[in-house]
Each structure stands twice: as C-alpha cells, then as structure tokens.
Write a structure and sequence with these properties.
The structure holds two protein chains of two kinds.
Chain A lengths: L3 H20 L4 E2 L8 H4 L7 E5 L12 H5 L2 E9 L5 E9 L11 H4 L6 E13 L2 E11 L4 E10 L7 H13 L3 E2 L1 E9 L3 H16 L8 H4 L1 H11 L1
Parallel strand pairs in A: 1-8
Antiparallel strand pairs in A: 2-3, 3-4, 4-9, 5-6, 6-7, 7-9
Chain B lengths: L5 H4 L9 H21 L9 H13 L2 H7 L5 H20 L3 H20 L1 H6 L1 H7 L7 H25 L4 E4 L2 E4 L2 E4 L9 H15 L5 H33 L1 H10 L1 H20 L11
Antiparallel strand pairs in B: 1-2, 2-3
The chains are: A alpha+beta, B mainly alpha.
Chain lengths: ~240, ~290
C-alpha cells in the first residue's frame, strides 16, 4: 500500500515542475539581427583614426576558453590617432543569450586575474552624444609594467547594469518579462600613465566612433532609447 | 500538537522505496539536470556534480537495510514546512535561471522526502553523506570566484616560486604564467580555481569509504582536503610548466586537455590517501561496515 502522504508529496513535486516549466522564458530577444555582425557596423577608419585588429592583449584565446563560450562575437581593435599617435584599444563582445553561467564578465572582476590591481573603480554617466548619457564605469588598472585607463559599459537587453548585482537584477527583470536578453560589453582602454588625459581622450573618442555607426544599428551598442535620442540629437 | 501520531506513522512494509516520491523527484530532477548539464556540469567548476549525485545515492543505497530496519517516518508538518519553501525555491530558480537556488531547492526536497520516509535520526546518522551531496549544489559563481580568485593567485605564486628556486625561466603576472617563450593561463582567466570544489568532494568520498570510527578524525581529514586540493593544483601547474619547457607547447597543451582533470584528481586522492596512511595510527582502529 502506498501511503497517502507520499502521493501528496509526489503530486506537489510534479505540480511545481509544471509551474516552473510554464513560467520559464523561451523567447530570446537580441538587438543584433541574426546574420549580422558587430564588425560590419564598426568603422575601421574614421576622422583621424586608423585601426588594426588585435587579439585581446592579455587573454590568450583558446577554442574552449570561457570567452569563446561566453561571446558569439568579439571585436578587438587598436585605434591609433594619425596625428598624435595616441592609441585606444576597443573591445566589443556580444553574446546572444545571457544565462546564469554564460553572462557578461565585468572587467573589474577579470582584470585582477591578469595581474592588475584596480586603483580606481567608479560608475560614471558617459556622454555619448548631445544630451545623451549612458551609465558606464571607469577603472584605473595598475600592473608592474603599465597603468591602464578603462571606460566600459555593459548592455543587457535594454538595461545598462553598472555592477554585478544590478546585472543579476536586470536579468531577473527580463525573465519576469518572459524573455532572455542578449548582452554586449563595450570596453575602451589606454595604456597611459596620465590617466586624466587618457579619460579625456577616451570620452571624445567614444561619441566620435558611435557617430559613425548607422543610425538603425546603433541600438546594438547603446540600446533602443539612447540610439533614438542620439539620432535625433545629431540630425 | 507537535506530537507524532505513532500509529499512523509506523510503516507496515518498510520498503523504503516509493513510486510517488520517485516520480515527484524525477519530475523536478530531469529539468534541473538538463539546465545543470548544459551550463554547470560541462564546466570545470561543476564537472564533479553527476559523480557526487551518483555516488551519494549509492552510499545511501548501501544503508538500505539499516534504514528499513530502524527508520521511522518523520513528522508530516515538518515535511510540509520544508517542502513548501523548497518547492518555491525550485520554481523560482528553474523559471528565472538561478541555478544555485534551483539546485538547493531540489536538495531540500530530496532531504524532506528522506526525512518523511526514515526520520531525523537517520539523517543525523548519515550526516556525512548529506554533507557530501551538498557538493552537487553549485555555489553562486560570484561567491565561488570571491573565494577562489585569491587561491588561484596563491597557487600561481607558489608554483612559479618553487620553479624559480630551481633556476627555471618562469614568471607570472596575475594568473598568466610565462615559461621561456610560452605563456598560458591557470584555468580560465576570468574565473576562480574552479576545480577546488570537485577535489574536496572526491577527497570526502575517499574519507567516507575509508571511514575510521572517530568522527573527530573524519572531520580532521575533511578539513585537510582543502589544502590537499590546493597542493594538487600547485603540482599540476608545475607539471604543466615542466612539460612545456622540456617537451614543448603541443605536448603540454595535449596533456592539459586530455589528462589534466584526471591527473588533478589522482594527485588529490593520492595525497589524502598518504595523509590518512601516515596518520591512521593516531586514530582508533578501522571500523567495518555492516
């Protein structure tokens, strides 16, 4: 004879399993249209800037590395100023669906692993166009050989989390709205001991670069609302 | 009020195997296994998961005659008060993709089922198995990283330091190691020393199977499994560097991909075995299982 309580417990489990299955979001929303690539929209040359593709300077790429599983596409370029010789490293990484394990890794977490200590890390409202602000973060990373100034932002669907906790809450919010968002990491850095100058250089570089991206694809980088603002401010 | 209705709770058959519970556990376990399988079990942070679950179930299965003879059904109200929040955790975790929450919910559900069948005394009696099974619950990535990031730095320091003392051209920056013209990473750069959880779990399994009568000694060995896991990693990195220097990058990378995990586990098990062998005389005599 099977005890009644066991039937009840078993039924509660089956019911819970069904509830979870019904609530689970399946719709993937990616701002990057299928078949298109980030590199198609990012200019190789503009204004006084030339660029060449580089491999991420500190992370040797391997086929099954975390980065390869995390991101569908990574574009790493070193832009150099023809006149002044200034060099800005750009890293754009896009992942189609952001899940518990496969989600954006934030530089403030990863840089220490490469032997950098972070001497400054603060959120910042980055001006990307006339009156268009973007929540970003800036870091100063110091290693035995060099000092790096970094500005980066992360886009998770239409959210722009500036720390790990926000990133988690945004992901939950998206799941509550029943979709799985895509993710983008946009990172700009200069190896430069004068970090004030470097931040100034980076913050003029970013709007200039974004202005080169086709208006209908700008949302891949800065989200839909800011892309519209940006286009309106520019026209 | 809290008293258990003895007449109702004494099971007549004592089979300890109940279809409704098995079906319920499977209904929760299969989706969880699919999620875990695609994201955790295939990474070095959680590759030990299926092994822990399989061996944990096997360890409990070995206790079945004892459980049938001396187990008494638990209090239904306690079962319910564990089951309701646990199922809530499971639903939230599975639906909204928070794997730790999901796995922990499932763990508590399974524990509540065990308690419902056999009672609290049997949980206490088999505490080691339940602690061991807890290793199948993946900790939140950020916690894991917080603990194991410094460990990874430490392991890199130690491995390169020892080899430098031997006069080898080795250095490191963070967790990027340089050996002559080669450079490589200690596991993925952006994660911690992931294998450490699996190594501790495998040591615990050994400790349980070679169990001595004294629980103090068991706990002592279990704590030692942490430094053992760290030392195993130091040895692995040193082997990797030496292979790179002497046999070339290709051989070292091949070794890394095919054998590193197994070698790591073998080193950890070997170390814990040696420690146990050396210290065993300190503990009282070995106890045979019934």
């Amino acid at each position: 004879m099977i005890a009644r309580r066991e039937v009840l417990i078993g039924a509660a489990c089956v019911l819970s399993s069904g509830t979870a299955l019904a609530l689970k979001p399946r719709r993937k929303v990616s701002l990057l249209p299928p078949g298109s690539k980030l590199s198609d929209f990012l200019p190789r040359k503009f204004d006084q800037w030339d660029s060449r593709d580089v491999s991420d300077l500190y992370a040797p790429e391997t086929a099954d590395s975390l980065a390869a599983r995390l991101y569908g596409e990574t574009v790493a370029r070193l832009y150099s100023d023809r006149r002044s010789g200034a060099q800005i490293m750009m890293l754009m990484a896009h992942g189609d669906s952001q899940s518990n394990e496969l989600q954006l890794h934030r530089p403030e977490v990863c840089y220490p692993a490469f032997g950098f200590s972070l001497t400054a890390s603060a959120p910042l409202e980055l001006q990307i166009g006339k009156g268009v602000m973007l929540p970003a973060r800036r870091l100063v990373a110091q290693s035995s050989q060099q000092r790096q100034a970094l500005v980066y932002w992360t886009r998770l669907g239409e959210y722009f989390p500036v720390n790990v906790t926000e990133q988690r809450l945004n992901r939950l919010d998206a799941a509550m709205h029943r979709y799985i968002p895509d993710g983008l990491l946009a990172r700009f850095s200069m190896a430069e001991s004068d970090t004030t100058g470097a931040f100034k250089e980076i913050s003029t570089f970013i709007p200039a670069l974004l202005a080169q991206i086709p208006g209908d694809r700008l949302n891949v980088f800065v989200g839909t609302a800011r892309a519209q603002q940006f286009v309106r401010a520019g026209s | 009020m809290v008293g258990v209705d003895q007449a109702a709770t004494v099971r007549s058959n004592g089979a300890g195997f109940s279809w409704p519970l098995v079906i319920g556990l499977a209904a929760l376990g299969v989706p969880a296994a699919l999620t875990l399988g695609s994201e955790i079990w295939s990474s070095d942070a959680g590759a030990h998961g299926p092994l822990v679950i399989a061996t944990g179930i096997w360890l409990l299965w070995r206790q079945r005659s004892e459980l049938q003879a001396h187990g008494h059904p638990g209090n239904i109200w306690i079962v319910c008060s564990a089951l309701v929040p646990a199922l809530g955790m499971y639903i939230a975790g599975e639906a909204f993709d928070f794997i730790t929450l999901e796995a922990l919910g499932l763990y508590i559900v399974a524990g509540a089922m065990f308690y419902s069948l056999f009672g609290a005394r049997q949980i206490v009696r088999n505490w080691f198995i339940f602690v061991y099974l807890l290793f199948a619950v993946p900790p939140p990535r950020s916690w894991l990283d917080m603990v194991t990031f410094p460990l990874k730095q430490f392991v890199s320091n130690l491995a390169t330091g020892i080899l430098q003392l031997c006069g080898l051209p080795v250095s490191h920056q963070g967790v990027v190691l340089y050996a002559a013209q080669y450079q490589f990473l200690v596991e993925d750069a952006c994660s911690g020393l992931n294998s450490i959880i699996g190594l501790i779990a495998i040591s615990l399994l050994y400790i349980y199977l070679a169990r001595r009568s004294s629980w103090r000694y068991t706990v002592f060995l279990a704590i030692l499994s942490i430094p053992v896991a760290i030392i195993a990693n130091v040895i692995r990195i040193m082997v990797l560097i030496l292979l790179t220097l002497w046999a070339g990058d290709d051989v070292a990378q091949g070794f890394m991909h095919f054998a590193a995990g197994i070698v790591l586990f073998a080193i950890a098990l070997g170390l814990i075995f040696l420690i146990d062998f050396a210290l065993a005389p300190l503990s009282s005599s070995k106890r045979e299982f019934a």
